[in-house]
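Take a sample.
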Amino acid sequence: MAPNIRLAPATLSDIPTLGRLFASAFAPDNLRHFIFAHGYDHNLSIQYSRARYRSAYDDPSKRFLKAVDDTTGNIVGFIMWSVIEEQGDESEMDTPPPLNSEFNHAVFGRFQKRRVDMMRGKRYIYFNTLAVSPDHQRQGIGEMLMRHFVSVADREQLDTYLQSQMVAHKLYRRFGWVDVEFLDTDLDQWSPEMMLGVHRVVCMLRHPRPIRQSTNYEHVRGR
């Protein structure tokens, strides 16, 4: 496990670090090859992630929680979630240059539409991000963040929806999420020469446990 890890709300000054950490953690994901119009660019990915999280930080419905390595003071992981008061239609995705508008609308637009359709009319938590630095993965940090999060969801007695990459699928199932639907993307349609095959994302839902059954995790108020 991770004995020197401390959880704390992320602050505005943490946003550049969170953007860099997200870009590094998700760089191996095959979808990243197609997000930008001219192929994957790690520096662009960092810039885009920072801008996205900076905008999200100003949204009062969103919460950020960071994991800090107290031996170095470095942020080594974080989660972000939001409370959707009542799911209705959402505005179309904004895909300004240098994003690949066609790919993002076709793939991520479909992901968004499935979430909206599944959760329409409900108040729920949308678990958006779990990211752990590549140098600190498989050390229990993701599990530590998830333990805190499920205590929040149980305390608020809200369903939680997420869309999982296969690499994190088992972790989410361990914390009570169940599979609802598989969203497959044939990446060979976008770049046959790369031979990446089918990319799978799993739509998952978790119902809150009765509070009396919830584990008494340490409570850290997430921003």
